[in-house]
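thread: overnight batch results

M.L. [08:02]
morning all. the overnight job finished for the chain we discussed friday. pasting input first so we're all looking at the same thing
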Amino acid sequence: MNLVGIDPGLNLTGYACVELVETDPEPRLLEAGVIRLQKGEPMPARLAHLFEDLDAILAEFTPSRVVVESIFSHRSFQKAGLLMGHARGVVLLAAERRGIPTAELAPAEVKRALTGNGRATKRQIQEAVMAQCGLAEPPSPPDVADAIAIAFCAARRAHQTIL
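M.L. [08:03]
and the structure it wrote out:
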């Protein structure tokens, strides 16, 4: 079973596909990357680009589930949360159009699952992902590490329900 984790954004959207095998509690990272959107482009064009790239990723990996980070909005950065909502909507639409069930995980929940600390920094997430995936260096940009963390957290939970 493949799962795709997505860290949505309007400049960078991280994605990661992991494989979960019933006999192994640890997921295996198949691919991770980032979709780069042009900052100067009008919003509708950026959203269309995001949809097209996500659709291609979903077509390639045919996941059983897409897991996306839930919206987190801090008082000081309320606009960022609203803008992220546009990207999340595109992610949910892309999955729905392919008939793929979706789930969401809160950022603090993902951080706690990977590092033991729900307030882990971006760097701590990168280092935890590097260690848990056996990578030579931390995934960069941090959006990729976040997507891997989302996918790993979801896959581990899915494995618990399989047993």
